[in-house]
Amino acid sequence: MAERRAGEARASARRAEPGPRRPILRLVDGRTERAARARDRARLARIDLRLLVASAGFLTAVGLVMVLSAGSVSAAQGYGGNSFWYFQRQVAYAAIGIGIAYVISRIPTARWRVLALPLLGISAVLMLIASRPTSGTSLYGASRWIDLGPVTLQPSEFAKLGLVAFAAAVLARKSGKLDDPGHLLLPLGPVVAGVALLGLLQRDLGTTLILCGTVVLMLFVAGARLRHLLVGGGLGLLVAAYLIFGETYRRTRFFDAWLDPWADPKRSGYQLIQGLIAIGSGGWLGTGLGTSRAKWDFLPNAHSDFIFAVIGEELGLLGCLVVLVGFGVLLWAGIRIAIHAPGTFERLLAAGIVSWIGLQTVINLGAVTGLLPITGVPLPLVSFGGSALVVTLAGIGVLAGIAKTSGPRPRPAPARGGGR
Asked: Which of 78, 72, 66 is nearest to 296 (CA)?
């Protein structure tokens, strides 16, 4: 009887004990894990931002130094003996671009959904104005500049950022529907075709390829079917082949200046040959900063499109590798920012900017080294050019803004009220 009463007492005591604490412990563990993940995201975002800013700043500084070196002779010849003319303008462009990048990095990334279409529309109108001989400025067969007196505007550079933002907004809105060719093409297809047509009216095939190639890479990142991309890429190659073989100067660049520059070394193949001679003259360590012989009227566009050849001559293979590492770090940071972006639109926007800068870098370096035809595309952040430098730095600012939003979200403060 006593044992029975003792058992009932123990059972009653167990019922009186509080419930199991495992759910509470699990809740605490979950909060701790989420907080740890948030701290990791914040740490990665800070690393990405530092890599981005450091690499962009390094390449901009290299560009200023090399523009001063490579452009000193042609500046002295063309601007009343002022050998610092190109350098002074590039410093001003860099200051403006850095200021714009800082302002843009503080703008909420979602604003680019609204700004994309106006920016692209204004750029398209300016591209149309630049393409007309009566209002645009022509150079080396291309009409892609607008002379505004003290400054020269290149609208196609602004179209790059506008098209990337517009494509990101459209693809983010159609996320999950890109298996349908109709959603894939509308409204993005006609807009890209229209901007590409404006680029061709300017006789600027290089920029047109960058614009179209950037959108194709954004479609790949957005999840479009590979067979659709292959079909579109095949059609694009056919159009490019038609454009190359349909124009005499492009056909000459393709066959004579690229495939066999030594067939006409004093005319069509002259620039590529002089660029290769400059790179080869540098050896391992270069001839020394400021000692280039190619810039003394041997190498055309030594301070702009072919500035990498002067880098190879003056700084050698080691200097070229350092510059390539700088671009590698910049693109790697941009890819990481795209991966860690907080939303689909931000991810596509970052991927588009990285694709644009990466494609332009590859096309320029390929032309200078003879791996690709010469297209007149500048080296991002390094070549002389106001519009290109300012817009590229603006794109860096957008990437920096996305990196800042990739960290933990601020938690809303608890509501205060007089509830009972």
From this structure: 72
What H or E segment, with its residue span, contains residue 152? strand 152-153
Q: For residue 273, tell me if it sits in a domain.
A: yes
Name the domain count of the chain: 1
DSSP 80-94: TT-TTHHHHHHHHHH
Question: Residues 26-42, buried b or exposed e (16+ Cβ, 10 A)?
Answer: eeeeeeeeeeeeeeebe
Per-residue pLDDT of the chain (420 residues; tens, 9 = 90+): 555 666 666 656 555 555 555 555 565 566 777 777 777 778 888 899 999 999 999 999 999 999 999 999 999 998 888 999 999 999 999 999 999 999 999 999 999 999 999 999 999 999 999 888 766 666 666 678 888 877 888 999 999 999 999 999 999 998 878 878 777 788 898 999 999 999 988 888 889 999 999 999 999 999 888 888 888 888 888 888 887 777 776 777 676 678 788 888 888 889 999 999 999 999 999 999 999 999 998 999 999 999 999 999 999 999 999 999 999 999 999 999 999 999 999 999 999 999 999 999 999 999 999 999 888 899 999 999 999 999 999 999 999 999 998 765 444 444 444 443
Residue 48 one-letter amino acid:
D
Rounded-to-integer distance, Cα 149 and Cα 267, Å: 32
The sheet with strand 142-147 has its strands ordered as 137-139, 142-147, 152-153
Cβ atoms 69, 310 nearer than 8 A: yes
Distance of CA 47 to the CA centre of its chain: 19
Q: Is residue 417 part of a domain?
A: no
How many whole angstroms separate alpha carbon 255 and alpha carbon 275? 18
Rounded to two decimals, the pTM is 0.87
* Contacts (Cβ under 8 Å, ≥6 apart) of 238: none
Domain hosting 258: range is: 41-404
Residue 139: phi, psi to the nearest 5? -155, 130
CB 303 within 8 A of CB 74: yes
Task: Let me know if residue 239 belongs to a domain.
Answer: yes
* 222 vs 232: CA distance, rounded Å: 15
Distance CA 148, CA 195 (A): 23
For residue 392, being part of any structural domain is answered with yes
Q: Collapse the DSSP code of 414 into the 3-class scheme (helix H, G, I; strand E, B; otherwise coil) and give the result.
A: coil
